[in-house]
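Practice problem: predict the structure.
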Amino acid sequence: MPTERMPNPASLVPGAMEALMDVTKAIMGAGLDGKLLALTHLRASQINGCGPCVAGGVHQAQQHGVTTNQVHAVAAWRETPWFTDDERAALALTEAVTRLADHPDPVPDHVWDAAAKHFDHKELAALLLNIAVTNTFNRLNAPTRQQAGKW
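Answer:
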């Protein structure tokens, strides 16, 4: 198992971790279902290979009532019957936003329109911020080889 290269960078820059946590608190207070936030956090973290965020995402998902089937199948959400239409829209948006550089049109209209059908502007804003903050943590944890279970 690779060793940690350094502590999480956000913990080393004064005020950085607190600022990220304040954004997270604001997202959680925006009225979007915690289950959706947990599913999108988990999916983005899987894509980015962030062990601590995947482990934390599973825990968060369980706390918010995500079913065992959903937790185990979130990477294959398109091929399973266990996700609602709004969860599917949120997961599609999560994948598009997390993989911005992979496509010439990173968030195609059909992905955006599906999300906008289920979420109002404030909810979409919370969803996008959740995806962005998750990707930020993934991009801090993965290169520094943060280990799951070391909180």
